[in-house]
Amino acid sequence: MGAGQSRSSNQLVVPQANQALEQLKYEVAQELGIQIPQDGYYGFMATRDTGAIGGHITRRLVQIAEQQLAGKFTR
């Protein structure tokens, strides 16, 4: 990005990944036993719960990336 340009932390670099990330969020929340609000408002959720979901999503994305990288170098 050039000078003066910024990107919101909520804006996806690859917008096509939005649906997959949403699905991943719900899968992780279900695995952790955390209910995601149906109205999409997270203001009443405990910070601990939203942090746990985000942390597990990050771990899962790193794992996916590592598997893809490993696959590129083992062919």
From TrEMBL:
The record's GO molecular-function terms, alphabetically, read: double-stranded DNA binding
- Which UniProt keywords are listed? DNA-binding
One GO biological process term: DNA topological change
Q: Which PROSITE patterns match?
A: SASP_1 (PS00304)
UniProt keyword DNA-binding present: yes
Report the family membership.
Belongs to the alpha/beta-type SASP family.
Functionally, this protein is described as follows: SASP are bound to spore DNA. They are double-stranded DNA-binding proteins that cause DNA to change to an a-like conformation. They protect the DNA backbone from chemical and enzymatic cleavage and are thus involved in dormant spore's high resistance to UV light.
- Protein name listed in UniProt: Small, acid-soluble spore protein, alpha/beta type
To which species is this protein native? Paenibacillus tianmuensis
